[in-house]
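[09:14] KT: can someone run the structure on this one? pasting the chain below
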Amino acid sequence: MRENAIRRIWREGRTVVNGWLATPCAAAAEGMAHQGWDSITLDLQHGLIDYPSAVHQLRAISTTQTVPLARVPWNEPGIIMKLLDAGAYGIICPMIDDDEQARAFVGACRYAPSGYRSVGPLRATLYGGADYSRHANETVLAIAMIETRRAVTNLDAILETPGLDGIYVGPSDLSVSMGHAAGFDPDSPDVLTAIAAIAEAADRHAVPAGIHVGSVAYGLRMMELGYRFITILSEYRLMTWAAGNAVAAIRNGQPDPSAP
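[09:31] RB: done, structure tokens below
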């Protein structure tokens, strides 16, 4: 079966640099996959991507060694199983608040006896190999999002879930849950304390922790805290950021060092 390089990166003690797709465009997926990301996540929760678009994007990512992941809209077994059957090598599931929800999520990602995933890996066999069904349980990743005050309270129980491969902080929802404004790179002391505590707990349980960031500087700061899966913005936000800088630079008559 094809290797899941994320697992190797984590075993080696390194950090995964993850790209993020929000638009339903196979060309965008292919272009992003050639930029050196370790993995790319298709966002079916807040992005504009639906299942048919996701299948085309997974095919486009397959032109590279970049590991394809997907964030599902919710903790619902049907869409989790369909995306795995389509060739996603890991699922990021939003709003996991307790160990019961975590167990249900992990179970949807695993074939029996470890879970209740139905067998029918249509495209996944083409991507992963003819022995996909035999090795999927130890290859595919189940990553639970920690996004609320309740999840932080139940963090140790969530991290003890058998088969859980990682956790992933949604900083905007976590900030809102704690009474602050939404947005990337939160700097409220209590939110930062929670983010640091999540990384510490994940390390204590030997479960890699990830987080979504809005800048390279904040991403490096999170790596210093122990985060081992860093997502920087999305292709849509990176495109508009680069375009805005280029337009401003040419109107101001000054080269922008970050522009092409």
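[09:33] KT: thanks! The chain has a mean pLDDT of 97.
[09:34] RB: yep, looked fine to me
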